[in-house]
Design goal:
Shape: flat
CATH class of one domain: Alpha Beta
Helix content: 40-55%
Distance between the termini: 56 Å
Order of helices and strands: HHEEHEEEHEEHEEEHHEHEEHEEHEE
Structural class: alpha+beta
Strand order of the largest sheet: 2-1-5-4-3
Radius of gyration: 53 Å
Length: 637
């Protein structure tokens, strides 16, 4: 028979899955609705973000394309000009050589030069700005354009606006180059004889030791290039409403889809919200590049104003602001279309999940009824088996508890025996020494008192060892403050005779550090480690046997290191020395429990760390190797 409690468990198993599935089906349906609603908002936001990001990237790309085009034309305008004037000066030189070759046998130099000047004087190119000039290498001008008052003058000492001796420098260049290019400043017509920068080329006419040249004003040629560029941009469109407009830093419109704006100064242009469009455009251009938002003055397809985001980039060489933008109204169309699709999809998803939930509930109803019947049968069977196992386990528990007590007592006796060996040996050695000196009649009162004091210390240690081990197994040990240096000295006092008798030197370097912990257990650790070092040093043949102890603060912890010069621990066993009952000594010398207990004390009782490694060090200008035990302790457990 099943008890009432077991019957309740079966009912719980039968009905709980149904309730849980029903609850979670309703909950998940609601969560899906919320999730779909959130997803809808996220989709709308993503559309907005994608639309803005895509269009921002597009307008930035278009502006950068125009910027690169301007930069290319600007950087190559000088190359184009050089190529053009080089072709022209070569043509002039060919004409001069043709005339010279044709008339050199029949006419004088003066006559030939007149024919050359007549052929070249009226030749113009580059919008009638550029012309040819001829000079003798001594600086005398041979030919300039008509109406020039300077033809025939000597310009050897002439300096341009920058202080350059132009004729002298050109003559020097012709010594090493056949067709050198040269930049200088020259008087520009119709500008009050102001000198403007020109770039030109000269070519030597060897028959008469002359040179012919031509050039053009750079700013005029650049202006010609600008007009060509502006014409290209004026006709440039990249979408239905996409166009690029350019204004200079003074607010003059240089290019715009609405041609009536070109040439107008619209520095004070502002939108319906008072946004100063032109001023902000120029401001952003001067700072490099960036986006601005405003109500555009005209949207090409509807011929009306509309909200617009514009990307602006400054072209510093010409003080131009290049800009294009997109109209944000296009976004709403995309959002409305997406909204309809998302609502339809969400509705289908919720209905589908609701149908699935009903099916799952029915399955769990049938399954839970079946499981409850099976469990009812098994409960009766297992109930008998469990009762029988309980009786058996109670008997085993009593046996295990007794065995555990015996094991703990045996381990404690082994630990006491291990700790007593050295003090008992010291007492035996001291008493034998006193007896021997007495028999030999060499015992003085000082030696007697000293030996009795040492025996008393050892017997106190034997008594203290029992108390220490009692504390070790006592869960109610009290934590108390103690000084690390004083505690280490207590441990060393107990080992003093053994260490002296074996010529082992102790070196203690300690900072004054107080911690909270178990002092007696800490002393026991120091004794265990030093005893192990002593045993290894006794077996060595070293002239100087050392145990070096260092105490210091390190990284907010107390750090104690103990090292010897006994040669170190074999690498094959160094990872096992903290195992219980592991020892390399004869049973008469140790049980292998000392280092195991030391780690238990430091790690489990005092919440510190105890590590060991082999270390090489120098002492008194000698190199040694030995075992290094490192203890780290918190100031408070």
């Amino acid at each position: 028979m099943l008890s009432k409690h077991e019957t309740k468990i079966l009912k719980f198993i039968k009905y709980t899955p149904i309730l849980i599935v029903s609850f979670f089906s309703i909950l998940i349906t609601y969560l899906i609705f919320l999730d779909k609603n959130t997803e809808y908002k996220e989709d709308i936001e993503q559309i907005r973000k994608t639309f803005l990001e895509y269009n921002k990237n597009q307008i930035r790309s278009e502006v950068n394309r125009i910027y690169d085009y301007l930069l290319y034309e600007k950087e190559n305008s000088e190359l184009h000009l050089k190529s053009l004037i080089k072709t022209k000066v070569q043509l002039a030189h060919e004409i001069m050589m043709y005339i010279y070759e044709k008339y050199k046998e029949t006419e004088s130099k003066e006559q030939i030069l007149e024919r050359i000047k007549d052929a070249l004087r009226y030749y113009r190119f580059n919008q009638n700005r550029a012309y040819f000039f001829i000079y003798e290498k001594n600086g005398k001008n041979v030919m300039l354009p008509p109406q020039s008052q300077m033809e025939g003058k000597n310009f050897w000492n002439h300096k341009d606006a920058k202080g350059k001796y132009t004729i002298q420098e050109i003559t020097t260049l012709l010594k090493t180059e056949e067709e050198p290019f040269y930049e200088w400043y020259w008087y520009k017509p119709n500008e009050n004889n102001k000198q403007k920068k020109k770039i030109g080329i000269v070519k030597e006419f060897k028959p008469y030791n002359l040179f012919v040249g031509t050039g053009d004003y750079i700013e005029d040629y650049e202006e010609e290039v600008k007009q060509k560029i502006l014409k290209y941009i004026q006709d440039f469109k990249y979408s239905i409403n996409g166009y690029v407009f350019i204004t200079d830093y003074d607010g003059n419109f240089l290019s715009h889809i609405k041609k009536s704006y070109i040439g107008l100064n619209r520095i004070n242009l502002k939108d319906n919200n008072g946004f100063m469009i032109t001023k902000e455009t120029i401001k952003v251009a001067k700072n490099g590049s960036g986006y601005i938002s405003y109500i555009g003055t005209i949207k090409p397809d509807i011929k009306l104003s509309a909200e617009k985001i514009t990307y602006v980039k400054g072209f510093t060489p010409w003080n131009w602001a290049i800009a294009t933008g997109f109209y944000t109204g296009e976004l709403e169309k995309q959002i409305n279309e997406k909204e309809i699709k998302i609502k339809e999809r969400n509705k289908k998803d919720i209905i589908s999940f609701f149908v699935i939930s009903i099916f799952v509930i029915l399955v769990f109803v049938l399954l839970s009824f079946y499981i409850s019947r099976v469990l009812e049968k098994h409960f009766l069977k297992y109930k008998k088996e469990v009762l029988s196992h309980i009786d058996e386990n109670r008997k085993k528990d009593s046996v295990y508890a007794q065995q555990s007590k015996m094991a703990a007592m045996g381990e404690m006796l082994q630990n006491i025996a291990h700790q007593w060996r050295q003090p008992l040996s010291s007492i035996s050695m001291l008493s034998s020494g006193v007896k021997f000196k007495g028999e030999m009649d060499i015992l003085d009162e000082k030696d007697l008192y000293k030996s009795m004091d040492d025996i008393t210390k050892s017997t106190k240690y034997l008594s203290q060892t029992i108390e220490d081990f009692t504390d070790f197994f006592n869960p109610n040990k009290k934590i108390a403050p103690f000084n690390l240096e004083k505690s280490i000295n207590k441990a060393l006092n107990l080992l003093e005779i053994q260490l002296k008798n074996n010529d082992i030197k102790i070196i203690l370097n300690s900072e004054n550090i107080d911690i909270h912990g178990y002092e007696n257990e800490f002393i026991q650790v120091i004794i265990n480690i030093c005893n192990n070092a002593k045993d290894e040093l006794i077996q060595s043949s070293l002239d100087e046997k050392l145990i070096i102890i260092e105490v210091k603060k390190q990284n907010e912890l107390a750090y104690v290191s103990i090292k010897d010069n006994a040669g170190g621990i074999n690498e094959d066993i160094i990872n096992r020395i903290f195992e219980p009952y592991f020892t390399t000594k004869h049973k008469s010398q140790g049980t292998g429990i000392g280092l195991y207990m030391s780690r238990e004390i430091i790690v489990n009782h005092m919440k510190g760390t105890l590590l060991v490694k082999n270390d090489e060090f120098t002492f008194n200008n000698k190199q040694y190797k030995g075992a290094l035990f490192e203890i780290t302790l918190n100031f408070n457990i």
